[in-house]
């Protein structure tokens, strides 16, 4: 579509055509021919060849009726510039140049017809001036065309370099995923498998005693179940690391979400801790899957920190609330307390990254009187 600069150019040319020749014998012809030479220039960027044709026809029509030079005659040179700079030389640039040279000769003859004296010299002079204008236009158009080609080549090189960089990043990421997958399979998965076997073996040995200890049996059962879950998730994650990334959208998070929160709480209670869960009016199906998984991991990490740092007598409160379009989590304990440094830093950093990934916020701080508090807010739809 024509730009405001195109409209400004056309308006200026029309004013420059009409005003100086307002007293001409044929002002209507001046306006009509000028409009035909100028108005089509609005579309010279998107349709240079039809624009040139329209301007050339109007210019040819003005020769028999106007024996004066007007500002509108510049239109043919602007149209020639558009053809050469945007369509090149073959075939349209050469054809447009030939039309302009022919028109320069016809105009020279017509404009010198009323000049007394050496008419031949006048024709040559006027034709020479017009020809110089054509040559200058062609030179500027060719320079503009080459500059546009150079810019396009630079853009193409930049796109190629960016694509190559992205491909290299994908290769590096795939290699790193493969390395991590090997480490997880060889170290973490093996260790978890050993834990499962040892826990099951110890539980079986206790059950065969004449007076088995139910507390020890329950603890070993919890250890075995937790290790099995962790082993299954580790194997799933190893599979994702090895196979994912084809479209960049592989789901790296394990599948636990808020629907598994009661099971998580039961597992913590099995360690002997008191856990109070208040889900309020929050329904997992009202929360986006990504947020639901992230919220589960926040609760899991917070309760794990309590088990590691808060002492055996610590009680845990887990509260979920809906506030407008936000999911609000709060996990508190009344244990011996912990600091960001005492938790090793990675757990809290991981929680913060999960929350920020969904456009939420996380707060962590010691509680007055002892214990620790973790609070988080998520947009329920996971908007970034």
Automatic annotation (TrEMBL):
Entry's EC annotation: 2.7.13.3
Domain Histidine kinase/HSP90-like ATPase: 290-382
Pfam families in the record: DUF7134, HATPase_c, HisKA_3
TM segment ranges: 52-85, 92-111, 123-141
GO molecular function, one term: ATP binding
Family annotation (SUPFAM superfamilies): ATPase domain of HSP90 chaperone/DNA topoisomerase II/histidine kinase (SSF55874)
GO cellular component terms attached to this protein's record: membrane
Reaction(s) the record says it catalyses: ATP + protein L-histidine = ADP + protein N-phospho-L-histidine
Keywords tagged on the record: ATP-binding, Kinase, Membrane, Nucleotide-binding, Phosphoprotein, Transferase, Transmembrane, Transmembrane helix, Two-component regulatory system
Name recorded for this polypeptide: histidine kinase
């Amino acid at each position: 579509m024509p730009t405001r600069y195109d409209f400004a150019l056309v308006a200026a040319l029309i004013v420059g055509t009409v005003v100086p020749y307002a007293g001409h014998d044929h002002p209507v012809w001046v306006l009509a021919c000028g409009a035909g030479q100028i108005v089509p220039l609005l579309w010279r960027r998107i349709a240079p060849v039809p624009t040139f044709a329209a301007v050339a026809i109007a210019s040819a029509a003005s020769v028999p009726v106007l024996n004066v030079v007007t500002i509108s005659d510049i239109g043919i040179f602007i149209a020639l510039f558009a053809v050469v700079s945007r369509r090149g030389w073959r075939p349209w640039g050469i054809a447009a140049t030939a039309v302009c040279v022919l028109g320069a000769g016809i105009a020279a003859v017509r404009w010198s017809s009323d000049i007394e004296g050496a008419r031949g010299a006048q024709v040559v002079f006027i034709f020479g001036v017009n020809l110089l204008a054509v040559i200058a236009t062609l030179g500027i158009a060719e320079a503009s065309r080459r500059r546009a080609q150079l810019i396009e080549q630079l853009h193409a090189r930049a796109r190629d370099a960016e694509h190559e960089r992205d491909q290299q990043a994908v290769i590096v990421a795939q290699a790193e995923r493969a390395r991590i997958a090997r480490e997880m399979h060889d170290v973490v998965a093996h260790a978890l498998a050993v834990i499962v076997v040892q826990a099951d073996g110890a539980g079986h040995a206790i059950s065969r005693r004449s007076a088995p200890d139910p507390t020890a049996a329950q603890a070993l059962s919890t250890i075995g179940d937790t290790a099995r879950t962790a082993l299954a998730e580790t194997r799933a994650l190893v599979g994702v690391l090895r196979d994912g990334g084809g479209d960049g959208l592989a789901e790296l998070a394990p599948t636990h979400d808020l629907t598994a929160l009661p099971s998580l709480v039961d597992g913590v209670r099995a360690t002997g801790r008191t856990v109070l869960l208040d889900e309020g009016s929050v329904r997992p199906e009202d929360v986006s899957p990504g947020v639901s998984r992230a919220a589960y991991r926040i609760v899991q990490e917070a309760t794990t920190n309590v088990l590691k740092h808060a002492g055996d007598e610590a009680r845990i409160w887990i509260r979920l609330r809906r506030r407008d379009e936000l999911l609000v989590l709060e996990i508190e304990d009344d244990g011996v307390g912990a600091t960001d440094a005492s938790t090793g830093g990675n757990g809290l950093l991981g929680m913060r990254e999960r929350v920020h990934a969904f456009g939420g916020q996380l707060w962590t701080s010691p509680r007055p009187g002892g214990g620790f508090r973790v609070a988080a807010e998520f947009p329920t739809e996971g908007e970034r």
